[in-house]
Design a protein that fits this description.
The chain has about 270 residues and is of the alpha/beta class. The chain is about 35% helix and about 20% strand. It has a 10-stranded mixed sheet, sandwiched between helices. The two termini are about 25 Å apart.
């Protein structure tokens, strides 16, 4: 049984993320913890010091207790109806992000709504809060659009980096129930006829966990063609490393976050050390 943490921002009920967790529970029972957070003040931002580490974001009491209580009630009713074992955690206004980060230390997986999670904090930086939450999580994260199909295919984004290999291994260990789905290991590069780094090693690993594996190299201009290539994949879930300084991550910083999450409406699994 997996312990899954599903974070709500107080004002929104993450319907797509909850539906995904519910489908996972149908395959194998889970413990679903709903973390209900107040709105945060992004203007204060996270404090990244030169020596590393972060400080929590001060919060704004913008959402009433009634709004949060209604979401908690909906969460409890849906869990009972779907036979999901659940817990409810409501965090204080002055330490919500700190508490969420701490909870991820004792969680197998964090699920977030990629479109609605604090979407109204900043019109200029609509994805910044989501990025920070994923960056500081001490467990793998799964970003779910409000409307997305449950995955029929798994796309493993590989660039030869430690982060990419770590994310792939983390996904394999967490989701053995997806082992029989069509799986594509994709290597994106701007170089012509480039060799896939450590091909035999990554192939040995992945073929132990997936029975229907294809290895594909995406050449030429990945930033231009990755989105197009992905549309041909049937109901994909994308697995990628998080915030690595690599060609693939640079592609994802621009077209991945805006295009994959917002345009393609597909789940994205990410993990980092």
């Amino acid at each position: 049984m997996k312990k899954i943490l599903l974070a709500f921002d107080g004002a929104h009920f993450a319907k797509g993320a909850f539906e995904f967790a519910s489908r996972l529970n149908e395959i194998q029972p889970i413990l679903l913890t709903g973390a209900f957070l107040p709105r945060v003040d992004l203007s204060a931002s996270w404090s990244y010091s030169p020596g590393g580490g972060t400080a929590f974001i001060p919060t704004l009491e913008a959402y009433t207790a009634e709004q949060i209580a209604q979401n908690v009630k909906t969460f409890e009713q849906e869990c009972i109806k779907r036979h999901i074992e659940y817990r409810v955690h409501k965090h204080p206004y002055d330490a919500a992000m700190y508490e969420l980060k701490k909870e991820t230390r004792f969680t197998d997986l964090l699920i977030l709504d990629s479109g609605k999670f604090f979407e109204d904090i900043s019109m200029e930086l609509p994805n910044e809060y989501l990025r920070m939450a994923v960056h500081d999580a001490e467990c793998p994260s799964l970003l779910i659009p409000e409307e997305s199909a449950f995955p029929e295919s798994i796309v493993l984004a590989y660039d030869g980096s430690e982060n990419a290999a770590f994310a792939i291994k983390s996904f394999c260990y967490l989701f053995p129930e997806f082992s029989n789905k069509k799986t594509i290991l994709v290597y994106a590069t701007s170089k012509k006829k480039a060799a896939i780094p450590d091909l035999s090693s990554i192939e040995e690993l992945v073929t132990r966990h997936f029975t229907d594996l294809t290895i594909h190299t995406l050449e030429a201009t990945p930033a231009k063609y990755f989105d197009t290539w992905l549309t041909a994949v049937d109901a994909p879930l994308l697995v990628c490393g998080s915030f690595a300084r690599s060609e693939l991550s640079q592609l994802f910083k621009k077209s991945f976050v805006a295009g994959i999450l917002n345009e393609h409406k597909i789940p994205v699994f990410t993990a980092h050390r």
